[in-house]
Amino acid sequence: MTQKDNSPAANDAASAQINSTVNSTANSPADYPEAQTVADWVVAALEDLKGIDIRVLDVRGLCNFADFMVFSSGTSDRHLKSQANSVVEQLKAHGVRPMGVEGDDVPSTEWVLVDAIDVLVHIMLPETRDHYQLEKLWSAQSNQASNKAATAADAPAAYATAIDKIRGSSIPK
């Protein structure tokens, strides 16, 4: 019969072996391109498909889920989906796999969101973009230090509302 070594030293050695195995199979942060580079690729993909009023917001320090938000408008739901597909293909060509795409499977979508990890890409019909005014919301945070706390408190709720709109669900009040 063999006896298992439960000493702290043995547990540390086992943990180190597991961690080294996991880390060797995962992409290291050094492999992932800078957020600014990813944003530049996104803008290039949107420009290739004639995205309308493309804007990039630097939200580093304002939120913990993204470094940049890129906004673009399209003329129809097909144009929105084509722009999103172009962004995904551009990122894949550079070895970046987006976390997900929301709104591209809805028949008459008004908004497609591409999550490129450090860069969120919002592609909307002009009416939808005007209605939610996400650019104004996130710009207000960086421009108005006195309103920073109030705007930051509103941002997660506005973002959750926007995501639910994309998914077609409603938020109970």
Automatic annotation (TrEMBL):
* Broad class of the protein's primary localization: cytoplasm
GO (cellular component) term, any one: cytoplasm
For this UniProt record, give its keywords in alphabetical order, as a comma-separated list. Cytoplasm, Repressor, Translation regulation
What domain of life?
Answer: Bacteria
Q: Where in the cell is it found?
A: Cytoplasm
Signal sequence bounds: none
InterPro entries found in the cross-reference section? Iojap/RsfS/C7orf30, NT_sf
Q: Which GO terms describe its biological process?
A: cytosolic ribosome assembly; negative regulation of ribosome biogenesis; negative regulation of translation
What are the recorded GO MF terms, alphabetically? ribosomal large subunit binding
Q: Which NCBIfam families match?
A: rsfS_iojap_ybeB
* PANTHER family referenced in this protein's UniProt entry, alphabetically: IOJAP SUPERFAMILY ORTHOLOG, MITOCHONDRIAL ASSEMBLY OF RIBOSOMAL LARGE SUBUNIT PROTEIN 1
Q: Its function?
A: Functions as a ribosomal silencing factor. Interacts with ribosomal protein uL14 (rplN), blocking formation of intersubunit bridge B8. Prevents association of the 30S and 50S ribosomal subunits and the formation of functional ribosomes, thus repressing translation.
Its assembly, as annotated, is: Interacts with ribosomal protein uL14 (rplN).
Instruction: Tell me the protein family, please.
Output: Belongs to the Iojap/RsfS family.
Query: What name appears for this protein in its UniProt entry?
Result: Ribosomal silencing factor RsfS
What is the scientific name of the source organism? Halothiobacillus neapolitanus (strain ATCC 23641 / DSM 15147 / CIP 104769 / NCIMB 8539 / c2)
